[in-house]
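User: I'm putting together a small comparison set for a docking exercise, and I want a reference complex before I start. The sequence is below, and the ligand is glycine. Could you produce the 3D structure with the ligand included, as structure tokens?
Assistant: Of course. I'll restate your input first, then give the structure tokens for the complex.
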Amino acid sequence: MKVLVVGGGAREHALAGKLARSPRVTEVLVAPGNAGTAEVATNLPIAAGDLDALVRAAREHAVGLVVVGPEAPLVAGLVDALEAAGVPTFGPSASAARLEGSKGFAKDFMARHGIPTAAYRVFDDAAQAAAWVRELDRPMVVKADGLAAGKGVVVAATVDETLAALDSILLAREHGDAGARVVVEERLEGPEISFHVVCDGVRTVPLAAAQDHKRLRDGDRGPNTGGMGAYSPPPMVDAALERAILERVVEPTLRGMAAEGAPFRGVLFVGLMLVGGEPRVLEYNVRFGDPETSVLMARLDGDILPLLLGAARGDLGGVEVRWGAPAALSVVVASEGYPGACPEGRAIEGLARAAALDGVTVYHAGTRREGERVIASGGRVLCVTARGESVPDAAARAYAAVDAITLEGAQHRRDIGWQAR
Ligand code: AMP
Ligand code: GLY
């Protein structure tokens, strides 16, 4: 079977690499991919947002499965379009993707179904929102309702910062129409974890818990990013907590979506904060996390096709996952300037030396091949990943690989996995 992976980051490289090793997969295509995916698959020059061209390519190449990486095409209805064209697709319908596409929808949904989350209100009027914040007289979290490439959330430290966030999102439209509505919610404190569950609409296959590091700099300081590194398993998640997450969050979410006429198929990635050890939902994502996918794919043994195809076909009956490596850890290497504007075209050296180290896989994100050279072409450039016997072991291997790579001006964190090291 041919499989098409949509997207061009480390998440898609990790998924394409795993799919390429499936005995049932004859060819992996990636649209648009990067220099790393070109080594395990065939890149197609189609943007992840070009829905018509993706549907055409899936039919032309007679692919048996499409796996959609990023959220924007899911929210825009790519799965609906592919299924209408008869192509089995891993990912939720546009209607189910509202869990990520509208934070207001997600909060109201959680309220309707008794799913634990921060107290909140939704506003489209800046004056009313500001009046509520002044009345509460507490710093709050302000979130643009729609997709904002992970940049639409302000965790304010003061009331003034909260009011300024309302102004820039609702009035100045910093994120365009994604900020025509905002969620204003209470600030929670506690460790964050990422929990992925593959779903076929009814049945679930939970994956291993992971933890991302959203801030740019060591010690969880600096601006929020798409994620600077991840590891699995996080020590704060034991079997009892995993059961609580499944019973209090995942199962009511899937029952609720089915009852509301939008059964969820694909991977539900719940961003949770543990408040006094109890799980509360910060956000839903309707796709695999990045960089979380790199550590999940590094730990996973065996064929991934039955999992993705089972979810796409609505039948995960009998599908199980096996965790081969006890731990894995990923360090993101980002360009100078990230998460702001970044220079393009700088050469990356040492990739082969890093990849030759035991247990290491270097997943590419913003990279492009230019003749013999691989050059940086985006904010997050590489996701250097290692398997290990424990998190500290995986960390030592991943950092040895990071140290073998050079890219002028590159930034990375030295403390990924600090809560487990
Ligand atoms: P989100 O995109 O909703 O996950 O928000 C981005 C980041 O903002 C999260 O990873 C958290 O670190 C932080 N955040 C979101 N909601 C809250 C909240 N209610 N309290 C504290 N921090 C939050
Ligand atoms: N790592 C967080 C995300 O993929 O949204």
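Residues 203 and 316 are 6 Å apart (CA to CA). The mean pLDDT is 96.
User: Thanks, that's exactly what I needed.
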